Amino acid sequence: MFSGITDFINNLQADPSGTLISLAYLAVCILFSLILHECAHGWVALKCGDPTAKMLGRLTLNPAKHLDPFGTICMIFLHFGWAKPVPVNPRNFRNYRRDYILVSMAGIVTNLILCIASLFAAALLSKVIYPADVIAYARKSGLQNNLLDSYHFLYPSAISNGVFNIVPFQAGFEWAVYAQRLFLMLAEINLALAIFNLIPVPPLDGYRFLDMFVFKGRLAMERATMNAIQIGFMFVLLSGVLTGLLSTANKAVFGFFSNFISMII
């Protein structure tokens, strides 16, 4: 986290306006992604017979109802984090094991859907942003995924000649560049949330899914044990031990998705 804070300060000093714009983009993406993640849990739980989240006012887009301060800070500086878990009472489920699994996976599935939908939107915007000759070259060379670069916009020929040239944009469509950056950041944030929540550590969704799908509820822990594991996991996150592993996983999956979706460009 501390390296992320240092990078932010350095970027702010080097490019104040650009850094603040990126921070605004990041804030919008985090708010939207975390809120929909938690609402998905509550909505699926309601459909499975449990109205707890609805009665407690958690089926809302109000950020104050969902955001966890520390989890949000981690999301900004570590690019993975969490919100306040939606309260669920499994005793209300119509089919306990099936519904428990569905509710556990609802947030992750929602984030993956948002990631893929955002990449599709970014790919469609590429057709507006880039001149026909750039798109034709990218298709011919199989490098369409280079046009889904939210930060550098590198010309595809840079791959072959080693010179990084800025892509010429279509005049009058600068708005599309900013829109594409927003969609690509939204895709990255949602993928990071999905992968992070797959970690089988309480209270993350991966633990609930593993407990019920694989072990059929036999991983249940006492509250004191679960709290101790959560505190230990916090220290692991702050140490940066998982940062490299999660970053590698995010890049690999994002690369797979972008390579596939870029075929529509």
Low-confidence stretches: 151-165
**Silhouette:** globular
Largest sheet: none
Q: Gyration radius, to the nearest Å?
A: 21 Å
Beta strand %: under 5%
Average pLDDT works out at: 82
Structural class: mainly alpha
Order of helices and strands: HHHHHHHHHHH
Number of helices: 11
Q: How far apart are the termini? A: 36 Å
Helix content bin: 55-70%
Tally of individual domains: 1
Q: Based on DSSP secondary structure assignment, what is the total number of beta strands?
A: 0
Question: Could you explain how this protein is built, in words?
Answer:
The protein has 265 residues and is mainly alpha-helical. It has one domain (2-264). 67% of the residues lie in helices and 0% in strands. It contains eleven helices and no strands. It has helices at residues 2-14, 16-47, 52-55, 69-78, 96-129, 132-141, 158-161, 174-197, 205-214, 223-239, 243-261. α2 packs antiparallel against α5 and α8 packs across α11. The radius of gyration is 21 Å and the shape is globular. The model is unreliable at 151-165 (pLDDT under 50).
